[in-house]
Amino acid sequence: MGALDPEVAPWARGGAAGMAGAGAGAGARGGAATGVEARARDPPPAHRAHPRHPRPAAQPSARRMDNGSGDLGSAENTPTTEALFVALGAGVTALSHPLLYVKLLIQVGHEPMPPTIGTNVLGRKVLYLPSFFTYAKYIVQVDGKIGLFRGLSPRLMSNALSTVTRGGMKKVFPPDEIEHVSNKDDMKTSLRKVVKETSYEMMMQCVSRMLAHPLHVISMRCMVQFVGREAKYSGVLSSIGKIFKEEGLLGFFVGLIPHLLGDVVFLWGCNLLAHFINAYLVDDSFSQALAIRSYTKFVMGIAVSMLTYPFLLVGDLMAVNNCGLQAGLPPYSPVFKSWIHCWKYLSMQGQLFRGSSLLFRRVSSGSCFALE
Known about the structure:
Layout: H1 15-41, H2 62-66, H3 78-107, E1 116-119, E2 125-129, H4 132-143, H5 152-172, H6 187-228, H7 236-247, H8 256-280, H9 289-307, H10 309-320, H11 339-349, E3 361-362
Antiparallel strand pairs: 1-2, 2-3
C-alpha cells in the first residue's frame, strides 16, 4: 500500500495514540469545567482573602483527572482507549492482509499463471496479468482459505508495537506545544508551524518504524515462502533465532533505510503540498473553502504515496533478498549488494512500480510474453 505500510500511510498511522491524546486533553478541560461549576454552587466563604492578596486560582486536580467517572479522555481510561484502537487496527490489518500478501508475491516477481488476452480502451489487443482476485483464488486452491493469512501474526505484532510506541512517545513528548496553523497566521508563521508539526510526526514515525521493522521482516519472509513452498520461517520466536544466527543483528533491519526514506519523503511532501495548496489556491471567500481544506491533506497523501511507492518496493525486496528463500535468489531476483543496487536494477528493468496496481496489470513491452 505504498507508504501505507506496514502498511498504512503515516498520515493514517498512530490513530490510537493521537485520539487518546486528544481525549486526554478533553478530559482535562472537562475536569476544569467541573471544578468551576462546583465552586459556583458552593456558598461564599465566611472570610474572604484580602483583595490585595487574592487566593491562587484553583487548578484542575490531577486526582479529578485520574479518577474521573467514565470520562473517555481521563488518564485512567487512556490505556483502555489505546487498547481499543490497537484491537480495531488489528481487525483492519487482518482484513487487508490478503491484499498485502498478493502484492508482495507480485513484487518479488512470482507469476504462477499465464497472462490473458484483452483489449484496452482503444480496442487494441493487450496481455493482462492475473488481477488480485484471480491471484487470491489461486492461493486458495494451493493452500486453502487459511493460506491467504500466511505471515499475519508477525504483522499484527508489528502494527501493535508501532501503535503502542507512538502512544508512548506522545506521553513522553506531548504535542500540546505544537501550534496548529490558523487562518490568522501570516505566510512565515504558518510555514514555521507546518515544519514544526511535520518534524514531530517524522520523529514518531521513524522511531516506531525502527522498533517494528524486525517483525516486518519476519512477516515478509513468512509470506514469500509460498513461492518455493519452504517452511524455514514458521513462528516468530524461531524466526528470530534463525535470523540472528545466520545474519546477526543487522539481519533484522534489512530494507529499513528505504522504508525510512519513503516515510520521510511522504510526510514532508504531503504536509508541505497540502499547506501551500490551502494557503495559495483555496480562496477564503469560497463558501466551501473549509471543506476543501479538510480533504486536501488526504488527497495529497494518496498522490504522494504513489510517488514514494518505489521506496516501499525496494525495502520489501531487500527484506527477503538472499535470505535462503527461493523468492530472494536467482532467477527471481539477483543478490543485491545494497538497496541502491536494487533500486538501479529495478529502474533499468522499468519495474520500480511493480505491484502498485492489483486490478489492471498489463504485461510490459520488455516481457517474455507475446501475443499469439
